[in-house]
Amino acid sequence: MKKIQILGMGCPKCNKLYAAAEAAAKELGVEYTMGKITDINKITDMGVMLTPALAVNDKVLFSARVPSPEELKKIIAEAQ
């Protein structure tokens, strides 16, 4: 089970990344849970200075952008 988290305050890009990551996980057919981290202190504690960011299993994989659907699928598939 992969724990996918979107880090951000709820801006349009954060919402776009949430929807795109959920769609990518569904297309991959992986078991997952989706969550949002909106607390700025928790976000900075995870080392993120620019949002939106994506973490899988509590490991931040990228920040400050919304990748293409293909790239997102690759990132989620390869995440440990």
In short:
With 80 residues, this protein is an alpha+beta fold. The protein has helices at 12-28, 40-45, 69-78, and strands spanning 2-7, 32-37, 53-56, 59-63.
How many domains would you count in the coordinates? 1
- Poorly predicted parts: none
Q: How confident is the prediction overall: mean pLDDT?
A: 97
Strand content: 25-35%
Q: What structural class results from the helix and strand content?
A: alpha+beta
The CATH topology label is Glutaredoxin
Helix share of residues?
40-55%
> Architecture, CATH level 2?
3-Layer(aba) Sandwich
Task: Enumerate the strands of the largest sheet in spatial order, edge to edge or round the barrel.
Answer: 2-1-3-4
The secondary-structure element order is EHEHEEH
Largest sheet, in brief, is: 4 strands, mixed
Oligomer: single chain
In whole angstroms, the N-to-C terminal distance is: 10 Å
CATH superfamily: Glutaredoxin
Shape type: globular
Strand element count: 4
**Number of H/I helices:** 3
The first-level CATH class is given as Alpha Beta
| Rg (C-alpha, Å) | 11 Å
Structure description:
- Helices cover 41% and strands 26% of the residues.
- It has a four-stranded mixed β-sheet with strand order 2-1-3-4.
- It has 80 residues and is an alpha+beta fold.
- It has one domain (2-78): 3-Layer(aba) Sandwich (Glutaredoxin), CATH 3.40.30.10.
- α1 (12-28) links the parallel β1 and β2 (32-37).
- The chain starts with a strand and ends with a helix.
